[in-house]
Design a protein that fits this description.
Blueprint lengths: L1 H9 L4 E4 L8 H4 L5 H4 L2 H17 L4 H8 L5 E5 L5 E6 L2 H10 L1 H4 L4 E3 L4 E7 L6 E5 L2 E7 L4 E3 L12 E2 L11 E3 L7 E2 L3 H10 L8
Helix pairs in contact: 1-5
């Protein structure tokens, strides 16, 4: 696991330890107190995870720190979004991924892609920083985009029910470099439904003016 994490790091992918058989960030292994366990409050848990992975994307750990996390580690392994402009399109189902792929055949065939237990992960780079959010394709919710503040499970992770994550043949980070795209919109994708995007634009939401 140490060698795998360091090899991914050398290709621009920052890894984090994730609980064995699960999807939750192993923050104790990273060195943070699990404050959310004191209240069992979902929003505190999300704040803990989002804040930690955002911080790591901006202040990445050293190779020595990665070694300390993964030496003898028996849990799962995750990849952080936002590090070196990495963005992961997390499609919830094979059918919606294939619909999107038909419109982006060349891109989907030339960037890292992994099969998740229920869908696909497409690894890209984006010139403009974006945050993690929902992912919409047309009028339908497609899954999530994992960027700043987000992470996904990576091969060879496995869930408790035995379902795993695997790179597609010849499309691992060791085979191809993530393609750079202009925006989600250039891929016919959006972080929100078309109706909400229109409504926010109409009301001027989502932007601020420097003081």
């Amino acid at each position: 696991m140490v060698d795998y994490a360091l090899e991914l790091l050398s290709h621009g992918f920052l890894c984090v330890p994730v609980s064995r058989g699960g999807r939750h960030l192993d923050i104790e292994t990273i060195g943070y107190a699990p404050l959310h366990l004191q209240t069992r409050h979902k929003y505190l848990k999300e704040l803990c995870f989002d804040s930690i992975v955002f911080h790591l994307s901006q202040q990445p750990p050293s190779a020595e720190t990665l070694k300390s996390w993964f030496d003898g580690y028996e849990g799962n392994i995750g990849i952080i979004g936002g590090y070196r402009d990495l963005v992961i399109l997390d499609f919830d189902s094979p059918s919606i991924y294939r619909r999107w792929k038909r419109e982006n055949e060349s891109l989907a065939a030339s960037t890292p892609v992994a099969k998740s237990p229920h869908g696909f992960h497409v690894y890209l780079k984006m010139a403009v920083p974006i945050i993690s959010s929902s992912l919409h394709f047309g009028f339908r919710r497609a899954g999530h985009v994992k960027a700043l503040g987000g992470y996904v499970l990576s091969a060879p992770s496995k869930l408790k029910e035995g379902l795993g994550y695997n790179w597609l043949p010849n499309q691992s980070p060791f085979d191809v470099v993530p393609r750079t795209v202009e925006s989600l919109q250039s891929l016919s994708l959006s972080p929100a439904s078309r109706l909400k995007v229109f409504h926010d634009r109409l009301l001027g939401r989502g932007r601020f003016e420097p003081n």
